[in-house]
Amino acid sequence: MMGYVLADDFLCEASGPLTEIHVWGSWLEDYLPMGGDPMMVEFTLSIHSDIPAGPQGWSVPGPLLWMRTFVPGEFTVDVDTPGIMEGWMDPPDMYFFPADTICWEYTFYLDPSDFTQQGTAQDPIVYWLDVQANPLDPGALFGWKTSLEHWNDDAVWSTEHDPPPDMWQELRYPPGHQFMGESIDMAFQIIGEESVCPIALQPQPEVYSTPCILDTDCTNEAVCINSVCYAPKNRYLSFEPNNPGATVALRVKHPASGRYWWLDTPFLAAPGVWVSYLVNAPVYRVWTEPVVHAAGCAVSPNEVYDVQAIEATCDIADEASYSPALALPATPRPTPKWWADCVGGFAVSAWTPADGLVNMSDLQAVVQYFGGAATSPHLTWVDVDPQTPNTVVNMTDVQRVVNAFSGLTYPFSAPAACP
Questions:
Q1: Is 239 buried (19+), middle (13-18) or exposed (0-12) by CB count in 10 A?
Q2: b/e for 195-234, b at 16 or more Cβ within 10 A?
Q3: What is the 3-state secondary structure (H, E, C) of 305-339?
Q4: Nearest-CA neighbor of 204 among 289, 264, 281?
């Protein structure tokens, strides 16, 4: 490999730190450096991202992610297989046989902080391993062994270290070899530690009042959840993320349909009101907002939702990786009206939670917020329009409440039909 750098791709399906790299190779004519010491060689190893279709049509290594030169004493070497007859190839097509009789295994140990693979079973990632050997004896030549186990595209070679994509050439068996013209893959093994999945803490309900033991300890349609009274809303789910300092994603699941969504980065919709919309992919972040108000097409009255957190190192396909579910209801369907039960009544200086009725109190509450009254209820109590609430209360919200008061049915999609 003197003057050459070779690379091959591999698939990562479990995130975690890389701890060992094993490379199998041989020495031309079994000549070992410095009078017979297989340790007298430096290896430069690097890991790259994947370019699935390079400039010449085959996949090649992409941007550098990690690199290290290992000097003698920083790796181990063992005889893997003695007494064999092996050939030798110099790319692109020089080949002769026999060339050596011993296969050596070189093992490189990494600190867990060196490189962390990010792939998972449901979202695997392709990486490339580049290997370049520099024997400390100019008369010794090291060759990277090929493998009969093939995966994905061919290995590639170049005469430049860390070359640009258009300088990589694919490796195929040369004339004179029994596999002439077939793809070459290299003999190596990647070993890592699968990241431990710490179970996130259960999100907690937004507190309307406290304490409580039973729902009857709470006002109107408020319910007792984890010893606090939670006030359901029509189109929002309100909770405390409750995972300080941890990088987590928040999932909202609709058990009745089996559908689930993720919460996007919150934005400040009104003073102290952090709103997060439902999206289709996890958003991992440290959630510092004291209360998050989840909204989206799928959040609708008369439904119950499970809110769960999952750590960034966990597999989202594994239900055991999630926090315990926080079950949050939206407002129940009012009787005899159909929906838009926003508040109960005005008591002393504040509005009380939804009370199971749609009446003039609900209309008055929406009009108050629209008019900017100091006694207005919380935005999330009265923002009922459009299909994905827009954090704006205006005449369309007023009209929706009037329609509900008139007995019209819920005008938007059911959770199962939402994107």
A1: buried
A2: bebeebbbbbbbbbbeebeeeeebbbbbbbbeebbbbbbb
A3: EEEEEEECCCCCCCHHHCCCCEEEECCCCCCCCCC
A4: 289
Strand extents, DSSP E, 52-200? 60-70, 75-81, 86-90, 94-100, 103-109, 116-117, 125-135, 142-144, 146-147, 156-158, 169-170, 185-186, 188-192
103 contacts: CB under 8 Å, gap ≥ 6: 24, 25, 26, 79, 80, 81, 82, 84, 86, 145
- Please tell me the pTM assigned to this model: 0.61
Contact 234, 384 (CB under 8 A): yes
Distance CA 390, CA 269 (A): 9
Ranked by mean pLDDT, which of 12-26, 104-118, 122-136, 287-301 comes out on top? 287-301
Partner residues linked to 70 by β-bridges: 43
pLDDT at residue 2 tops 70: no
Residue 49 · residue 127 · CB < 8 Å: yes
Angle between helices 395-405 and 360-371 (to 10 degrees): 180
- Using DSSP's 3-state secondary structure scheme, residue 233 falls into coil
State how far the Cα of 47 lies from the Cα of 294, in Å rounded to an integer: 40
Which stretches of 275-394 are DSSP H helices?
360-371, 379-382
Asked if residue 238 lies in contact with residue 291, where contact means CB atoms within 8 angstroms, the answer is yes
- Maximum Cα–Cα distance for the chain, whole Å? 97
CB atoms within 10 A of CB 44: 16
Residue 1 has pLDDT above 70, yes or no: no
* 273-279/292-295 β-pairing: parallel
Q: Which helix (H) or strand (E) holds 395?
A: helix 395-405
174, two tokens = 């040369």
Starting at the edge strand found earlier in the chain, the sheet holding 156-158 runs 60-70, 41-51, 125-135, 5-12, 156-158, 169-170
Beta bridge partners of 329: 304
Q: What does the mean pLDDT of the chain come to?
A: 94
- 223 forms beta bridges with 230
Contact present, 6 and 25 (Cβ < 8 Å): no
> How confident is the model over 256-284, as a mean pLDDT?
97
CA 239 to CA 236: how far, in whole Å?
10
293/379 Cα distance (integer angstroms): 10
Taking residues 320-328, report their average pLDDT.
95
